[in-house]
Amino acid sequence: MVSPSGLRNDDLGQQLTELRAKVREQGAGSAALPGVLDHLRHVQWHYSIETDIADPSVYAAWARGAQALLVLGDKVLNPAGRVLIGEGAEPASLPLHPEALARSERVRRELTARGVTVPAGAIPVRSTEETLLRRPDQVAKRAVALVVSADFALSVLDGEPLDAEYMEHIFPRSLAERTPTEMALFTEQDPALAARLKWGYEGAAQLLAMCGEVEPTFPRGFADQGQVWNASIGIEEPELLRTLQLLPVAEVCEAWEGARALHHTVTLARAEGVRPPAELDHEIVRQRYRAMEWLAGDQEWDEVEVDVPCWA
Questions:
Q1: Which residue range is the domain that position 15 belongs to?
Q2: Does 101 have pLDDT greater than 60?
Q3: Which of 10, 93, 159, 277 has its CA 20 to 30 A from that of 21?
């Protein structure tokens, strides 16, 4: 969980990680599992109540207003008290804000006009009031780390690795927060790892687009690497960390919904062995979706579950 200050609530974060693992095990094969996991990846508030009242309907009005799931013992319930995960599970709806549903429908209409029919079942992203984004300086450091790691990955693939110490000297604060996977690339210079991390420009492009610094492009082709470079490592690190600002949360949620819808579309197309519509590129869509889930979620970059379905 990310607090308003942009710092992780590690106690709650660990609890949520453990709860997700427990729910994943208990709900294996359940139609409700993807939606419950998605909800738990974007929890912003958590309440623990001790009571002798066994009837969960007592909390229904509060839970509906809070878009909350109830965790009672080994069961996960929806606001109406119906069991989603655990003994006695039954088909039941997940809490979704009307704003999120309306946005989802609007974004799908817009994508249809662009030649992309989004298959049914994708779970809408959270409403603006449920969304808490990372701090702008965290976004800046992540974008820089992605771009530098991508440049280093490409140099490894070319057989002439860049000077890692020089890069760390120029971008000390950003590269101090590289992920374990990115750190491994710099130390091991493994071509297989480099082939994965060379896509960092796409994740950085999405993050910088959410700051109004890069023109977002439809993910059928690469982002403008010159724009991404100029908006990240082309700026002195202290100035970038001080000045970068995020777009209003409503605009970010709009882009997040689009990224999820496209990810849903190309993932199902690959699973069915057909080409994605509108010449969408699976890996570009995947990297941009990871960026949005990280920006609005509580997981570290390497931990973002882009291969876990976000559809019911």
A1: 10-85
A2: yes
A3: 93
